[in-house]
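Query form — protein DUF4288 domain-containing protein

QUESTION: What is the three-dimensional structure of this chain?
INPUT:
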Amino acid sequence: MNWYIAKIVFNISAENTTHKPQFDEQLRLIAAESREEAFYKARTLGLREEDTFLNDNHNKVKWEFINVTEIVPVKNLEDGIELYSQIYETDEAKAYIHNAHQKAIFIRMSEKPVF
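ANSWER: The structure tokens for DUF4288 domain-containing protein are given below.
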């Protein structure tokens, strides 16, 4: 059995809203014999997790599976190995770095103290 990371993409839409289109990109760990099997298992997960529900304002919210956009093999499961990497290009480098620092602060502040 081999391990793969699959990126599954969902479109999130809600009735009576004016927000920009939203997409959820999820990374999932998949056990499969081949890359092709991992792709089909990831597609099955995405289709199974489509959902429609009413939000607090009684507007219909829909999570629609779009597709599997990446399958990346994982060679060994070890502490600290790189599982996924994506390079971003931006004209707002300072804002990107600031956002990364803010996320790290949030993670540290939300942890429970270890005694």
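ADDITIONAL NOTE: The chain has one domain: 2-110.
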